Amino acid sequence: MLAIALIVFRETLEAALFIGIVAAAMRGIAGRSGWLALGVGAGIGGSLLIATLAGEIAQLAEGIGQDLLNALILGVAFVMLAWHVISASRHGMQAAGQARQLGQSAHDGHGTPWSLIVAVALAVLREGAETVLFVTGLTAGSNSAGPPSWFDLVSATLLGLSTGSATGIALYLGLSRIPIRQLFSVTNTLVLLLAAAMASQLARALNQAGLLPSLVSPIWNTAQWIPMDSALGTVLHAVVGYDAQPSGMQVAFYAGAAVLILSGMRLLRPPARRPIAAQA
Predict the structure, then answer these.
(1) Which of 27, 66, 146, 233 fits a 20 to 30 Å CA distance from 206?
(2) CB neighbours of 105 closer than 8 A, spacing ≥ 6?
(3) pTM (two decimals)
(4) How many CB atoms neighbour CB 61 within 10 A?
């Protein structure tokens, strides 16, 4: 079942890339593996619960319950990511030249990474729920040959999980090679792009629920060059929120989120210290 493997790969890759970026952003924080495991575990549990209740959720609010739930998840994830980036501009950037200061901050109780953990849980929850729902829909809509066997279903799922996870691990290993001095800037930029992508997807979910206009739809179309279901399109969508055919509202939310976060970073960034000679 190649279609199932591709679906699982796509959703797993998005979650794995997200986790890889967050893991790099948490480099130096004591107990990082445990924090990440907590977020991933909570996300998996939540996605299974949502998948189980999918039928009831979809019927809520006159049939737009699923879109409203997606919007809620994306909204909370955006707030968590935005808060992390803005907060890091005040605290984390001061540690750019000291490899262990962030870890010491967490040890002292000032750097507990709850915002990132919640964002990880929500990302895994969303991708996991989508995986279950997509695969269930695909198998239910099989042709007269009948649904796939359990062996084919498990094999395709494992293939998608392994390849998607491997790609996310490769990204994390690449980020881990960046010196600690530059790591904060790189990961903060990536997390900022993730937050803007969440805002864009939030606009799409609200538009599908009929709560927001699309403005211009699509505002551009790059599907012929980078299709959404291609390997490059999948990676760009997961990392920077690429959409081959976005609406005007999605672009507005993306740009607005980026400007909001950058403005917050600028406002909360500690002033640069003047050299002692200059002060004298």
Answers:
(1) 233
(2) 91, 95, 111
(3) 0.74
(4) 13
Which tens digits make up the pLDDT trace of 163-172?
888 888 887 8
Please give the Cα distance from 63 to 34 (Å, whole number).
Answer: 38
CA 105 to chain centre: 25
Cβ atoms of 205 and 70 closer than 8 Å: yes
Return the amino acid letter for 183. L
- Does residue 79 contact residue 255 with C-beta atoms inside 8 Å? no
**Burial class, 267, CB count within 10 angstroms (exposed 0-12 / middle 13-18 / buried 19+):** exposed
Residue 220: what residue type?
A: W
Segment among 16-20, 96-100, 104-108, 168-172 with least mean pLDDT: 96-100
> How far is residue 57 from each of residues 37, 140, 141, 250, measured CA to CA in Å?
27, 19, 21, 24
**Run of H or E including 219:** none
From 2, 20, 46, 241, select the one nearest 138 (Cα to Cα). Answer: 2
C-alpha R_g of the chain: 20
Burial of 140-176, coded b for 16+ CB within 10 Å and e otherwise, reads eeeeeeeebeeeebeebbebbbebbbebbeebbeebe
Pair of tokens at residue 225: 């060059």
CA 124 to chain centre: 8
Burial class (CB within 10 angstroms; exposed 0-12, middle 13-18, buried 19+) of 253: buried
Asked whether 83 and 119 are in contact (CB, 8 A), the reply is: no
Q: Write the Ramachandran bin of 109: left for phi over 0, alpha for psi from -120 to 50, otherwise beta.
A: left
